[in-house]
């Protein structure tokens, strides 16, 4: 059974969802895949996974790096999970490219699945905590954020990233 809760952040309302294994979703209200994996029957409330995620968000939105990751239950294909695990390794306050992320997620390093990686980054169900906002185009393009480029910019600035080095769409 999934449980949902909401969090009011400086960049808008956030929907959080968990199941019995951990946090399964965190979506900005502008996310193109908002609530896409919610079960038909869920309850609204609080539990240890949602509380932990809110604690993480409180620290993050104070402009600080949280020193823990809430219990996550990543749901997707094996490839998507490898991409999301690669995203979790991007250090706070830094960025990486889709190409570098593809290198880390690919099993066959000779054939980089850059488009598939972009698709997996875009289908990340747990934004911010699984930091897809830290992925940029190889030519320093600020591209591909499901919650909107304006939110991506605000999240990067919050982490102290100098966004003047990037090209805006």
What is the assembly state of the chains in this entry? single chain
Please give the count of helices: 5
Domain count: 2
Sheet with most strands: 4 strands, mixed
Biggest sheet strand line-up: 3-2-1-4
Please name the fourth-level CATH homologous superfamily of the largest domain. Answer: Winged helix-like DNA-binding domain superfamily/Winged helix DNA-binding domain
InterPro entries: MethylDNA_cys_MeTrfase_AS, MethylDNA_cys_MeTrfase_DNA-bd, MethylDNA_cys_MeTrfase_DNAb, MethylG_MeTrfase_N, MGMT, MGMT_N_sf, WH-like_DNA-bd_sf
Domain Methylated-DNA-[protein]-cysteine S-methyltransferase DNA binding: 78-161
Subcellular location: Cytoplasm
Protein name: Methylated-DNA--protein-cysteine methyltransferase
